[in-house]
Amino acid sequence: MSEGRLAGKTVIVTGGAGILGHSVATVAKSEGAHVVLFDVVEDFSSDLTTNGAQYLQVDLTDDQAVAQAIAVVGSFDVVANIAGGFDMGPTVFETTDEQWDAMQIINVTTLRTVLRHAVPVLQQRGAGSIVNVGALGALRGAGNMGAYTAAKSTVMRLTEALSDELRHQSINVNAVLPSLIDTPRNRADMPDADHGQWVSPEDLANVICFLASDEASAVHGALIPVTGLV
Questions:
Q1: In the sheet where 10-14 sits, what is the strand order?
Q2: pLDDT tens across 33-88, in order?
Q3: What pLDDT, on the 0 to 100 scale, is given for residue 3?
Q4: What is the pLDDT of residue 138?
Q5: Strand partners, 34
Q6: CATH number of the domain at 10-226, out of 1.20.58.220, 3.90.226.10, 3.10.310.20, 3.40.50.720?
Q7: Of 7, 64, 68, 163, which is most buried, counting CB atoms within 10 Å of its CB?
Q8: What predicted TM-score, i.e. pTM, was given to this entire model?
Q9: Burial of 61 (C-beta count, 10 Å sphere; 0-12/13-18/19+)
């Protein structure tokens, strides 16, 4: 039997083709989990998929597609909701409906759609863990980030509300609040920054996998800052 704090667990990772999602899946697999990656990317493959991880192409905004993907997985123990996105915007009063909707859809609609179909499975099992991704920057509003911080603050409030609803059913719901994550896009956008102070995807993945494990069974509704040295 595999050893590790996620040994024997099946872990769904949304946004699994992305930098953070892939890191979460990699850590989870190293901790003994069977990993299932959800993402919209076609024909995705990596070292994970060639070594036993399962990949399902699914549009997380499509309710029927998510329902089918959840049904394919069957029973599972953990949902790591990593799918999401960031975009700087104009000022609040200049933000278009399209810009507002884009941040809500990629960060909130995807989460709600997955939860709609995943939570009943965990309730039927009588146990499980859900880990969401908020944002440290969404603890307060910030100029030219109104749509993004509104979306991520919604994720954080939904995390707290869902935890309150599920904690007495042995289902843990928590979220991480990263600061700047050390990704190729962020490095390209901020080439002069001290990237060594940012949060590595691997370090953030370790926190997420802790929250997914039985070691975090007493943690409910937590919004955990993961800030590196920023």
A1: 54-57, 34-39, 10-14, 78-81, 128-133, 171-178, 223-226
A2: 999 999 999 999 999 999 999 999 999 999 999 999 999 999 999 999 999 999 99
A3: 81
A4: 96
A5: 10
A6: 3.40.50.720
A7: 163
A8: 0.96
A9: middle
